[in-house]
Amino acid sequence: MTLHRKWITPALAGIFLLISLTGAAMFFHFGTTLGKVLHEWLGWLLVLIAVAHISLNWRPLKHHLKTITGKALVTGFCVISLVAIVPSGNTSVGSEPPFIQPMKALAEQPISMVAELAHLSFSQVQDKLAQSGYSNVQQQQTVSQLTDNDLRQSMNLLGQIFTQVQ
């Protein structure tokens, strides 16, 4: 397949727009699951199209790289990229969404306390848990114990407990 500017440049602009918008949506925590999937997977398409664009525009790019500004920008972005992707020290900082720690803490509380927080009686919570397949739940058990410390299951179970039936 021959690379042509007539489709490479508009494709690069379009994929850049899509990646930018989905990235901004994720940054402000209002993106959709589809947006996140598109952002992650079409990011690879952005890389491929950008490589094609660079290959088509290699001579003008070389000209820009001869200037101090061009060298400084490329060097700066290379350094930032390396710092962003090379692990150093504690890589877990900031790796979880901010709601995870409170969810873990809530999942570690006795079911009786979770019931109080949900403004439900313990028997109402027992009924909700029974509907989800958890029978013989005791007041001092925790959601984490019920789900064998599976965070995703714990979050789903807490969601069911806190969901008010209209």
Describe the structure.
This protein has 166 residues and is mostly helical. The chain has two domains: 5-85, no CATH class; 100-162, no CATH class. It has nine helices and no strands. It has helices at residues 5-27, 33-56, 58-65, 68-85, 100-107, 111-117, 122-131, 143-146, 151-162. The longest helix has 24 residues, at 33-56. The chain is elongated.
Task: Compile the SSE list and pairings.
Elements: H1 5-27, H2 33-56, H3 58-65, H4 68-85, H5 100-107, H6 111-117, H7 122-131, H8 143-146, H9 151-162
Helix pairs in contact: 1-2, 5-9
Portion in strands: under 5%
Structural class: mainly alpha
- Give the mean pLDDT: 89
Number of helices: 9
What is the strand tally?
0
Strand count, sense and closure of the main sheet? none
**What is the chain-wise order of helices and strands?**
HHHHHHHHH
Low-confidence stretches: none
Task: Round the Cα radius of gyration to an integer and report it.
Answer: 25 Å
Shape descriptor reads: elongated
- Count up the domains: 2
Name the assembly state.
Answer: single chain
Helix content: 55-70%
**Distance between the first and last residues' Cα:** 59 Å
Transmembrane segments: 7-29, 41-58, 70-89
Protein name: DUF4405 domain-containing protein
Keywords: Membrane, Transmembrane, Transmembrane helix
What is this structure, in a nutshell?
This protein has nine helices and no strands. With 166 residues, the chain is mostly helical.
